[in-house]
Structures are given as C-alpha cells and as structure tokens.
From TrEMBL:
Organism per entry: Paracoccus fontiphilus
Pfam families from the UniProt entry: HTH_1, LysR_substrate
Superkingdom assignment: Bacteria
Lineage summary: Bacteria, Pseudomonadati, Pseudomonadota, Alphaproteobacteria, Rhodobacterales
Entry keyword set: DNA-binding, Transcription, Transcription regulation
Domain HTH lysR-type: start-end pairs: 5-62
InterPro entries: LysR-type_TF_proteobact-type, LysR_HTH_N, LysR_subst-bd, WH-like_DNA-bd_sf, WH_DNA-bd_sf
Protein name stated in the entry: LysR substrate-binding domain-containing protein
UniProt family annotation: Belongs to the LysR transcriptional regulatory family.
Annotated CDD domains: PBP2_GcdR_TrpI_HvrB_AmpR_like
Length: 324
C-alpha cells in the first residue's frame, strides 16, 4: 500500500460514499462516471480491500469502506470549510482581528476611522475578546493583545509601552490629603480597586514601594480595566491600571495620580501577534504600519501626560515578576 494515498481518489470515494451513486458523485465533481469508477477501482487496488457492495442499484459501504468514509468525509468537510472561510475573507476585502476588550473599546475604536479613511476599500472586523486566536482553525489575520510578549512560534511586536500609576478622582485625592501628608498613609487609608487581569497588580506594586496595607475588608475586583477605571473616576477608590486606557481621563483631569511622589512604571504591554505568514498579506502590512505610527505618537503623548502630572517614570525591571 502506498504511504501517501492518492487524494484525488479519496475525493472521488468520499463523494460516492456520501451520495450513494457513481452518477451523482460524477455530476457533483463535474467528471464522467467512467472517471469515478476508474478512481474507485484504483483505490481498492491500492488499499487491497473492498470498499463498496452493490445493493438495489445503489452502492453501500463495506466495513472497511465505512471506516475510511468516516475519516475522509470529516477531513474534506474541514477543507471545504477552510476554503469557504478563505474565499469569504478574500472576496470581502476584510481585515479580521481579535483584540483585548478594554483596549478595543478605549484605544482602538476611537482611532479606527483614521485607518478606514486611509483604506476605504477595505472592511474591518474586530472581535473584542479575551480569548487568543487559534490561527490554525480561525480566519483571523492578527491579534492585538495586552500581555508580556511571550507567544512562541508567532510574530509578536510591541506597539505601545504602558505606564502604571495609582489613579483616583481629584475629590478622592483631596480627601486622602486630609487624612495625611504622607502618600504611603494616604494609600493605606484608601480603598483599592483591583483590575484583576492587569499585568501589574497591587500586591506587586506595594511590595516594590515597601508599603504595608491593612487587610482589605471589602475588596473591589473587576476583570475589565474599563470598569475599574470608571469606578475610580466616580470616586470609589484608587485604581492601579493602564495609563494607556485611562489616558483621556488623565488629560481631562477626571483622573489624577494619588500622589506625584509615586513613579509611573513603564513596560511593553500592547502587542501585534500573528503567524509570520500573515505578514505577506497586504492589508495586514498596511494595518501594522498604521498601528506602529499611531502607537508611537500615542506613547509619546501618554508619556507627556504622566510627566505633566508631575510623576517620574522608571522602567520595569526583571525583578518585577509577571512583567518580564
């Protein structure tokens, strides 16, 4: 038996097994019935088994034929599905991406019109999902991910460095200043808002700062940064989260650093991730070039906002786990 069976013969076999008739399979495949019969004969000779028996002018599968059909029909169904997905994407001239939810809402969407104006002939599909794409089974061009950059076997490129600093509403800051002039004591008296999927968590930040906090009696924990940031803006407490996501609030003054004595920690946070082969697609290259440009401009503006708020900036170090 050949190690590599003839795929053409398997396709003819699958069509006959599924339709039950050589004539129906031939019509579906657009070939003659003689061609189908010849391929079936060759396949049975190659495999050394009988695949069909004839019953009432129809063909039925033998036990060996049924075993082969279960495998081939599943394989060809997957191939047809993949082909349809590729053709749909190609025909619709669409860029498909998956994006971390809060980044999609707070950063990408407000800037996306600029990309569409530059590329009006292209459509864009964005799935705002925390789930990473399976590029082998899903028709996704790329992911925009918040993370540490560890995606083995994939092209990954940081487009925005983030800054993390304790933020709160101006009223909440003033209330904590009434408690004490010492920023550490202000923080100890504050209610902490936890963004549980952020790379930089309160326990790490407090340890680096050498601040001991009392045991939290009613912790506030959210799995979306947008929710944690909103709650801090409403005056419910202090959030340790992405300046990238809170940039508009920081510029408008609806969020401010709890204390300018706390430095902002800088680390690579927002990434383009995709298989290297996807970089050959023109729309992917256009989008990545656009994202690099907008990311660089934004990062410069974000850095200025932190500095204008009076905070120093220090890079994260290898001693800060979860980041590097």
């Amino acid at each position: 038996m050949p190690l590599n069976p003839n795929l053409n013969s398997l396709a003819y076999f699958e069509a006959v097994a599924r339709t039950g008739r050589v004539t129906d399979a031939a019509a579906e495949l657009g070939v003659s019935t003689a061609a189908v019969s010849q391929q079936l004969k060759q396949l049975e000779e190659q495999w050394g088994v009988k695949l069909f028996r004839r019953q009432d002018r129809r063909l039925s599968l033998t036990l060996d034929g049924e075993m082969l059909f279960q495998t081939t029909t599943a394989a060809f169904r997957m191939i047809r599905g993949a082909r349809s997905a590729v053709l749909r994407q190609s025909d619709s001239r669409q860029l498909s991406m998956r994006c971390s939810p809060s980044f999609a809402v707070r950063w990408l969407t407000p800037r996306l019109k600029d990309f569409l104006d530059l590329n009006p002939e292209w459509g864009v599909r964005v799935d705002a999902s925390p789930d990473f794409s399976d590029f082998e089974t899903e028709a996704m061009d790329l992911d925009l991910r918040y993370g540490s950059g560890n995606w083995p076997g994939l092209h990954s490129e940081c487009v925005i460095n983030d800054y993390v600093i304790p933020l709160c509403s101006p009223d909440y800051r003033d209330r904590m200043r009434d408690v004490s002039d010492d920023p550490a004591r202000q923080l100890a008296a504050s209610r902490l808002i936890h963004s549980v999927k952020a790379l930089y968590q309160w326990d790490l930040w407090l340890a680096v700062q050498g601040i001991d906090m009392p045991v939290e009696q009613a912790p506030l924990r959210f799995d979306r940064s947008s929710m944690a940031i909103q709650l801090a803006r409403d005056g419910a407490g202090v959030v340790l989260d992405s300046v990238t996501l809170a940039h508009d609030e920081l510029q408008r003054g609806t969020l401010v650093p709890l204390s300018s004595s706390f430095p902002a920690v800088e680390f690579p946070a927002y990434w383009i991730v995709c298989p290297t082969r996807h970089m050959n697609r023109r729309i992917v290259r256009l989008f990545i070039d656009w994202l690099r440009d907008r990311g660089a401009l934004f990062q410069a503006a974000s850095r200025r906002s932190v500095e204008d708020a009076g905070c120093a900036i220090r890079p994260a170090t290898p001693g800060e786990p979860g980041l590097l």
